[in-house]
Amino acid sequence: MPPDDRGAESSGIVLPEFREGDDERIQRVKNVAALTAIVLVEVTARRAHALPEQTEVAVKQEARGEAQLTDQQLNIAVRFTFKTDPHAFEVEAVFGLVYALTEAIEKEDADAFARHNALFNAWPYWRELVQNTTVRMGFPPPLVPLLKV
Question: Is 105 part of any domain?
Fold first, then answer.
């Protein structure tokens, strides 16, 4: 896929930029890793007391992943943020992803995998969390789009 098809934004979502060599690094990890767990580590939700009168809101979403590596396991913390402007609500969460490794990998490979592939693995859990949380806060569920590369 040409680099210009994978920018920092996908459907209004701020994603990490692809770096030179990331495709190869990610593939090396995919060849030896198996996802064994996705858990919610942390969640914060805030609702404005006085809601803005404006009915149209801009949405800012961010996603990033950080890797911790052992010989047998890759642990990735994926952080997501969903904010409205003007401020009506905000949801932030960290998901922990655990991958079993059949062989050792390099830290640079793990970091590339965390920046990109792990985000896709955790994204359905994030979408569900945002939609359920905002309904509980008294809002209609926002559309959290699919990730696209």
Answer: yes
